[in-house]
Design a protein that fits this description.
This protein has 321 residues and is an alpha+beta fold. Helix content is 40%, strand content 19%. It is built from 9 helices and 11 strands. Strands 1-2-9-10-11 form a 5-stranded antiparallel beta sheet. The chain has a two-stranded parallel sheet with strand order 3-6. It has a two-stranded antiparallel ribbon with strand order 4-5.
Length: 321
Amino acid sequence: MHTRDRGIILISVLLIVLLLSSVAVLIGNNYLISLKRASFLEFQTISLNMFRNIESLALKKIDLELKFNNQYLNKENPLLADNFVFDLDSGRIVSEISDASVCFNINSIVTKGDDNFIENKKSTEAFRKLMSLYEVDNNIVEEAIDQIIDWIDYDSNPRAYGLEDYYYSGPLNNPKEYTGKRLFISVNELKGIPAIRKIDWNIINNNFCAHQQNENFSFNINSINLKDSYLLSSLFPNIDITDAEYIITYMPKEGVRTLAELSKLFPSRDFTSPNGRIDFSSRSFLLSSKITFEDFTSESYSNIYYVNNNSYIVSRIYNGI
C-alpha cells in the first residue's frame, strides 16, 4: 500500500473517531439534561405535596392553640416559637408560623358604609402620623390618602386630591387601567397609585400589608419588635418614637392581656385616644416553608386567617418550582 493511501486512511479514521466523539458528547449532554429535568420534576412533585401537607398541619396547629384562648398570644407561645422540621433522605423541610398582624393594613383606611367605602378617619390619622415620622411631605400624604380611597370606593367622584378612572385610563397614565373598586389584595398594588410612587418604597414595603379584614388599624402588641416602633407610635397620638422604643424594649416576654395592664407597666406613657385598636392576640398568620432536596431549593408563603374558630388559607406563593 502506498504511503499516501495509508495517510488518507489514517485521516479518515481520525475524522470518524472525532465525529463519533462529538455525537457521544452531544448524546451525553442531552442525557444529563434529561436526567436533570427528571430530577427537577420529581422535586417539584415532592415540594407541592409537602407544602400542602405542611399547610394542613399548620391549620390544625393554629386551630388547636387558639381554640380555648384566642384573646391572648405572645411570642413565647408554641404556635409562634416552635417550627416544623422534617429531615428527608436527601434534604430537609423547615417551616415556621409568624404573626402577620404587625403591619399597617392599607385596607383599614376605609370602612364599609351603607353602599360604598368611606374614609376611616382614625386610620387616616394613623397614616398621617406614620408618614410624618418618616418625614414624608404633607401634600404627598394627603394625595396618597385620597388616591387610595378613590381607588377602593365604588363611585367615580374624585376626592380633593384623588384620582378616578378618567386619570388611570387617560393619556397621562401608562398602561391604561381603571380603579379597583375593591379592597387591595396585595401591597404591591399600591405601586399603581401616583402619590405612593413619590414615597420611598421601602417605607411602604416594611410597614404595610393588605388584609381583607378592613377594620380599624390594629396589631398584636405582644408580637412587636424594635423595628415596629414607628407602627406603635402611629397608633397612639401621644406616644413618640422614644416612648415606643422604650415600651418595646421593656415589654415582658409573656406580653400583656389588657390595655389596663399595659398602662400599669408604663404609667408615665399616655395610651389614650388611640388611632385604632390595640390587640393582644392575632387572627392573621404567615406560614413560611423552605425545602432543600439534593441540589434544589423551593419556598412557600401561605397567608392564613383565623375567623370563627377556624383557620383557612387565603393566598399562597411558591418560589423555585
